Amino acid sequence: MNTAALIVAAGKGTRMGADRPKQYLPLLGRPVLARTLAAFAGHPAIGRIMVVIDPHWRQAFEEAAAGLENVEWCAGGDSRQESVHLGLQALNDGAAPDAVLIHDAARPLISAGIIDAVIAAIAPGQGALPALAVQDSLRRGEGGLLSGSVERDNLWRAQTPQAFPFPDIVRAHDALAGENFTDDAELARRSGLKIAIVTGEEENFKITTPADLERAEKTLLCRHGDIRTATGIDVHRFARGRKLILGGVEIPHDAGLAGHSDADVVLHAATDSLLGTIGAGDIGEHFPPSDERWRGASSDRFIRHAAAMIARGGGLIAHIDLTVVCEKPKLGPHKAAMAANIARLLDLSPERVSLKATTTEKLGFTGRGEGIMALATATVRLP
Known about the structure:
Blueprint: E1 3-9, E2 26-27, E3 30-31, H1 32-41, E4 46-53, H2 58-65, E5 71-75, H3 80-91, E6 99-104, H4 112-121, E7 126-133, E8 138-142, E9 145-150, E10 156-158, E11 162-165, H5 166-175, H6 184-190, E12 194-199, H7 210-223, E13 226-239, E14 244-246, E15 249-251, E16 256-257, H8 265-277, H9 283-286, H10 300-312, E17 316-325, H11 335-345, E18 353-358, H12 364-367, E19 371-382
Parallel strand pairs: 1-4, 1-6, 4-5, 7-12, 17-18
Antiparallel strand pairs: 2-3, 6-11, 7-10, 8-9, 13-16, 13-19, 14-15, 17-19
Helix pairs in contact: 1-2, 3-5, 5-6, 8-10
């Protein structure tokens, strides 16, 4: 079955009280939407991914979708129902799928198990809804006072992705356009489709408030309990006629560092520490200095490569600590820019990058001004 995912990401998320919609807020360094998209892009049953967005936030969307294949976008409408309808219309072209999963962008902790379950429940004339049975007692209140009870039998908390045969859900949306459904399963049921309930997961909650975002961060960290730490060290001697690049930042000085690439000693040490956390060798094995492709190359490529390897294994970079050792130049005025750039390269929040500079009190090769040494310690969390 050819299955597509339709991700609803056009909402403004005003209850979050942030300067941008919640789907673009960082969740452990990556946008919420990026984590949602990665869950579907990494699932073997999903082909096309259509994301319904507010075009005003197109750049933020493109940053969230960077590096993912088969991700498209279309403009959304004034309501969720209208946005889904527009997304279905965008999918309904010459490559229309057999089935579609409709998912909220603000549910980034969706598991492969739920995706499998809702796809398996699709049948002719039948869609699927992941849901959790209500377990707490329900009470009705008026004016701040208890006014009654509600029976919880046969009550369910609806989640997404909600799955449907594609032609059926298109007809349902066409027939009920202009209504005000907030849930595609109810819209489909109203149009005559059967909806199978499959068991959802508590972790598949929707991020709506700052407390939800904090809960999502804690949940992600708990999922990654295999904690690895590794170190990296690199040394380069000074060389006249070259720019001095440290941490991806050009530092004013009368000499640069000698090396096959841009000789960024800080990013080289950082790269080795990251590779060490997953037992992936060292920078020279991945980017040998004998290969002309890397002559003069920016070391941004090296550290991003290491980060991508960690991400492919389902890992999270928790922290990186760096120490730069040199007598000159004085790095105090540049430390903040270097740390900020490394955080950007690794999609980390600023507090997860520590960068320090020190000297050896004029002892050794650094004390004599012959070169620079950098040391790095990376901490990574794996599933």
